[in-house]
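Propose amino acids for all 508 sites.
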């Protein structure tokens, strides 16, 4: 165990004062007494701090903007370890010392298994996905159900999309308590349901009790169907997370679309907050085509990392197969080879969802229907304390992770740009056709009358141009079951192919 010993040395100097007496003046000599050194030893475990500093010094996108991460910040190993030991709390050390002020998306965990499971779509959840909005101009909050995860605890109840709730365990929700009530430590809670009439929300006396379950795996494909409207055969896919290994399932959906001679595609990413960049490549290729010489996106790293690669090595092109990662079978893709795609995206759409939109833009007509997206133009990688592998997380090397340090970091390591060099969407992607979700008329996902899908169908067919899409009560999200946790908005990149011990700095 790597520890650092702090030595506190106390040296006392006692000086006797001079006493003066008019009758008998006697001046005492100053005496200096050296008290023996008293050594107090305090052991400070700096393994986590060392792992954090080494990782961010090597890979952090803003490494050059954080002075304490500079390569020449410490002249000696002693100076370095003294600095680490002066910050005994790893979390505060990371947040207060190491992260750049503009960084909105780096996250971490003191349990790498929990983090890696989460990023693979495995979490502790009751399966209810919901949005949260203010009630008028007040601080009161209500929730509305967006969808229910299949085979979850919520799926065994009567709760469904379009239901509302205004309290938890008898306490009304507001901007100050919704985090503790809905996202706190209680695994079981009771939602106090409500109804909306004449734009007024009020309790309806119905209660629904939900319990979070360990290891819930969400199927990211919630709805897929083909709609026959006139001479159009419109494929509709609601995809809610770019989870690893879902490329096979996506390919099967597109095989069905091809088999039914789909002419147009509506891709619903309205609640998709991100995930794997490799899965985004597969989805983009299924939509546009499999020309592997065409670039979808390029990654830009910090100067130190960027210098390790030759031009073109950081390019991510369209793909022709599902690949072999995460259980995929390297199957040939069933691409639709479309010229236009209609994408439903909102303020809950982020990261890999935005990457698909931006990556396809130079090659085809991308019609964005909805609202402005989150604005996540950055990528991250999972790191653990495994110096021999450059600290990159590799599930096949879990036995090589330092058993005394189970922390994981998911820092921002790159910025992404499309083939036209565009990466300036930190403020979100603005829709071509703006249409907010109406909490009083959420509709049924995949149904032709669901407002966002209906607007896409109108654009495709040109029929129903007189239909009104007036929004009675816009969502105006303050948070949601997904956006509350910043880990959901991650764009997960593959580990850099420079994962060697030499990448990590050694201070002499």
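Proposal:
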């Amino acid at each position: 165990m790597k520890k650092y010993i702090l030595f506190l040395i106390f040296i006392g100097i006692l000086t006797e004062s001079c006493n003066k007496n008019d009758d008998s003046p006697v001046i005492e000599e100053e005496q200096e007494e050296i008290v023996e050194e008293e050594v107090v030893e305090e052991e400070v475990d700096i393994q986590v701090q060392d792992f954090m500093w080494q990782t961010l010094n090597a890979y952090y996108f803003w490494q050059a903007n954080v002075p304490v991460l500079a390569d020449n910040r410490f002249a000696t190993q002693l100076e370095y370890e003294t600095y680490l030991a002066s910050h005994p709390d790893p979390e505060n050390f990371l947040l207060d010392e190491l992260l750049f002020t503009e960084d909105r998306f780096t996250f971490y965990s003191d349990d790498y298994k929990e983090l890696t499971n989460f990023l693979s779509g495995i979490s502790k959840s009751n399966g209810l996905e919901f949005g949260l909005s203010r009630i008028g101009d007040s601080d009161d909050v209500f929730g509305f159900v967006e969808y229910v995860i299949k085979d979850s605890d919520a799926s065994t109840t009567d709760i469904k999309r379009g239901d509302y709730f205004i309290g938890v365990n008898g306490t009304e929700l507001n901007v100050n308590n919704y985090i503790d009530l809905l996202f706190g430590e209680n695994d079981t809670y009771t939602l106090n349901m409500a109804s909306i009439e004449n734009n007024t929300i009020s309790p309806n006396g119905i209660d629904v009790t939900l319990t979070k379950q360990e290891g819930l795996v969400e199927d990211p494909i919630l709805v897929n169907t083909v709609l026959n409207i006139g001479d159009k055969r419109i494929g509709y896919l609601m995809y809610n997370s770019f989870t690893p290994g879902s490329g096979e399932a996506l390919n099967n959906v597109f095989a069905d679309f091809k088999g039914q001679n789909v002419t147009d595609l509506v891709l619903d990413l309205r609640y998709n907050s991100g995930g794997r960049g490799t899965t985004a490549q597969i989805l983009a290729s299924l939509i546009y085509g499999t020309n592997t010489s065409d670039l979808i996106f390029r990654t830009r790293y910090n100067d130190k990392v960027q210098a390790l690669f030759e031009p073109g090595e950081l390019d991510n092109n369209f793909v022709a197969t599902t690949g072999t990662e995460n259980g995929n079978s390297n199957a040939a893709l069933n691409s639709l080879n479309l010229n236009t795609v209609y994408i439903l995206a909102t303020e809950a759409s982020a990261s890999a969802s935005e990457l698909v939109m931006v990556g396809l833009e130079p090659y085809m007509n991308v019609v964005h229907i909805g609202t402005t997206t989150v604005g996540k133009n950055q990528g991250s990688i999972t790191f653990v304390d495994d110096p021999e592998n450059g600290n990159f997380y590799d599930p096949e090397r879990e036995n090589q992770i330092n058993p005394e340090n189970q922390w994981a970091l998911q820092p921002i390591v790159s910025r992404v740009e499309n083939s036209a060099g565009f990466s300036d969407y930190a403020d979100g992607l603005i829709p071509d056709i703006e249409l907010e979700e109406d909490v009083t008329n959420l509709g049924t996902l995949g149904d032709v009358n669901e407002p966002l899908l209906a607007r896409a169908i109108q654009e495709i067919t040109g029929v129903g141009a007189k239909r009104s899409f007036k929004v009675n009560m816009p969502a105006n999200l303050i948070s949601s079951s997904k956006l509350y946790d910043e880990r959901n908005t991650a764009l997960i990149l593959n580990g850099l192919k420079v994962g060697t011990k030499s990448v990590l700095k050694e201070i002499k």
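The CA atoms of residues 31 and 44 lie 38 Å apart. The longest helix spans residues 47-59.
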